[in-house]
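Example (one chain per record):
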Amino acid sequence: MAVMAQGIWYPDKVAADLVAEDQFALPTVAEAGRYHLYMSYACPFAHRPYLVIRYLGLEEAITVSSVAAERFEAGWQFDDAHPDPLDGMSHLAERYLQAKPTYTGSVTVPVLWDKQAHTIRGNDSSALAMMLATDWLPLARYPVALVPAQQCKAIEAMNLWLHQNVNRKVYHVGFATDQQAYDAASDTLFSALAQLDRRLGESRYLHGDRITLSDLFLLPTLVRFEAVYALHFKANRQPLSAFTRLYRYMLDLISIERIGQTIDIEYMKQHYYVSHRHLNPYGIVPAGPELSWWPSHSGEQP
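Predicted structure:
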């Protein structure tokens, strides 16, 4: 993935090539109408804070828009179907440069943009999701406690475990460049799915009978699995449906309208199959697979 170094775009460098990356501080106070979240319907990490916004009903407090589906050498961009609603910018990188002309780091989604101070107030998906689920709860239309105080440490630990063993691990499978790396990543990923399947035999959700932030961290990977990861990333040791409790859990979550409407399978496929030319050189988007649970929702735009 391309990066910026001192405000200069390097399409052939990755974050590991940088000595350090610039960080952006999160808002200290929740303030309705001040912030805009840039996300992508394809990115499972950007899906996290978007899920929190939709599930809690924060749409009136914070506006949201998606970048274009395709990502090329110039990074995330906007197009006619997914324009920048604030200033009509053409590329997300322009926002990073507006925030800091000498920015060094990855140009990623999500981005929380401060419309008043004209700067970025966070681009770490995990931190943004946690902040929205806690500090912004008083502004929510549906004030559900996604991080109950008595479960906070357990949720944080589970979120980290999910990130390391599921959310990121499926990318390690898909981007492996040798058999040994692929096999190791696949072992970890499918072992984690089996562990989650067993856990969900004991409770409806990851931390009991109520949805928590951990469920909104796991779901983005699950809904992309059949449509993209199994084929495009070769994450196909077992079909997701083989994990019967985990599959039931996914269907349970997406049946909730506020959650289901955050999903856009066609957009996801367009992104992965067109943007990852190192995996799919001709950019051909497959016709399938047909999913029994799609199109139960239309991927409603924010």
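Caption: The chain has a mean pLDDT of 96.
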